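Exam prep: given the inputs below (a chain plus S-adenosylmethionine), describe the expected output before reading on.
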Amino acid sequence: MRLRGKKNIRESLEKQPDLVVLEPQRMRGRWHEFFGNDNPIHIECGMGKGQFISRHSANNPHINYIGMDMYDELLKRGSEKARTIWLEEKGSNEVPNLALVRGNVEFLDKMFEPGELERIYLNFSDPWPKAKHAKRRLTHPKFLLKYKEVLSEKGEIHFKTDSLSLFEFSLNSFSDVEFQMRNISLDLHREGRRDDLVLTEYETKFVGKGMPIYRLESVVGDAVQQEHRRQVADALEEQARRGPMKNYESDEEDDDADETNSASKE
Ligand SMILES: C[S@@+](CC[C@H](N)C(=O)[O-])C[C@H]1O[C@@H](n2cnc3c(N)ncnc32)[C@H](O)[C@@H]1O
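Solution:
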């Protein structure tokens, strides 16, 4: 019974070559042929049921998206999700800027040429809490270096998780391989659910339970690193123009001074 179920799922995937790629290594260096354009490619490694990547594909038609996972069942759910969203919002269940790929992140370099990807999303990756499994965590330095190989000069990694221990481990990993980080958040939905952001299935569940979501972005490609450094330099220059930064202590002193001043004026 289960085998027949699996066979049906595989048959359904094989009937969708416009959306589902079962042998992604064949597309290495040719993903722009699949999409029929040269738009940048963003991938979610470990897409689960595909809510995040499907929603992004509908929101941003000028970006090509790839949702990757290891299981046929998840690819099938992802294909249903994507086609439903597109049918409801665009009037057609064809999804031109999305590929759902069966693959293991371990072999990312077999599926993509150097520089072929512009952004990698790691959303709620399995935390693998036991120390002996640390090398399986998708933010282990060995994976980060693999991502760098396939990212372009504008390449970025966006990572979010509910797991504090995975986030701590990841901060160390990014730092160990000297990847610049920015926009670090220890509670992404602190002010209430961020409906301006695209949430994943896991995120929706955890935010509903009031759990904090940890997030960071890493700028990996040379061009995006330079751009980031320029923005930081501009911000520092602007700050310098406005005068020296106050710390909390001096704020208090200033408050006291203000009170003294106004009292003496009275
Ligand atoms: C906890 S789920 C998160 C799913 C989704 N990103 C979300 O936030 O709702 C992790 C997913 O990553 C997939 N995954 C784990 N390791 C993987 C690997 N090495 N290659 C591809 N997918 C992987 C799992 O099959 C699972 O679907």
